[in-house]
């Protein structure tokens, strides 16, 4: 078994319970200041994906400028490489929900990010097809291409409603996908965001919740030096 990346736990999931595994341009880890603990927490939540299993869904809270998006992108990027070393194909998609506020826009962005039309033969147009058709094509892409997919929904509180969260969090249970596992990382600067969630979404999406504290003066100084 390859040992190329030590961020993730590589114990055999047959003998280890999932919970026991808890232990754009992206900078190197050494240039991400003051977020070692948060990176490890996110890695622990995503760790099962290395084995082709379902990662824990995560909600990340914190004020603007606390490194939430940076850390989420960093961990998922490393996860893709680590999983590949283990023979597992992981895909990632990033959605800026402040821009893609509707269910249709978000579904299109996710499908387009994960689709390789030369491989799948599937076309994901910018517009012109129904939301249901975007979903049907997305489910086909996932099952045909990936073992696991992690989807980052940045500024998740800007979504018009919970529809896409319901679709993503319950796709396997609803029989929309057969083999691919989906993990969702929601990011918000509104600590009370989940209070307005549909209870069904809340039960499946809020498996883990992390709060990123503001940087202190020393960390801000280190960030300036790193830049």
UniProtKB/TrEMBL annotation:
Residues 54-216 form the AAA+ ATPase domain. SMART domains: AAA. The lineage of its organism: Archaea, Methanobacteriati, Methanobacteriota, Stenosarchaea group, Halobacteria. This is Cdc6/Cdc18 family protein. GO terms for molecular function: ATP binding. One of its GO terms (biological process) is DNA replication. Keywords: ATP-binding, DNA replication, Nucleotide-binding.
């Amino acid at each position: 078994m390859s040992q190329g990346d030590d961020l993730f736990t590589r114990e055999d999931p047959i003998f280890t319970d999932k919970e026991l595994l808890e232990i754009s341009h992206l900078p190197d880890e050494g240039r991400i200041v003051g977020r070692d603990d948060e990176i490890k927490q996110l890695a622990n939540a995503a760790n099962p994906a290395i084995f082709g299993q379902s990662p824990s869904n995560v909600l990340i809270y914190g004020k603007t400028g606390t490194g939430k998006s940076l850390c989420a992108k960093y961990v998922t990027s490393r996860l893709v490489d680590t999983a590949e070393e283990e023979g597992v194909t992981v895909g990632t998609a990033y959605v800026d929900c402040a821009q893609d506020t509707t269910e249709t826009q978000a579904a299109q962005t996710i499908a387009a990010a994960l689709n390789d039309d030369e491989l799948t033969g599937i076309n994901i147009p910018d517009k012109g097809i129904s939301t249901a058709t975007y979903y049907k094509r997305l489910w086909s892409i996932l099952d045909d291409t990936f073992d696991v997919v992690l989807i980052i929904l940045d500024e998740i509180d800007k979504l018009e409603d919970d529809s896409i969260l319901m679709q993503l969090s319950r796709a396997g249970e609803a029989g929309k996908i057969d083999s691919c596992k989906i993990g969702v990382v929601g990011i918000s600067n509104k600590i009370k965001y989940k209070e307005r969630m549909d209870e069904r979404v809340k039960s499946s999406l809020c498996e883990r919740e992390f709060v990123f504290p503001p940087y202190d003066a020393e960390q801000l100084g280190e960030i300036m030096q790193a830049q």
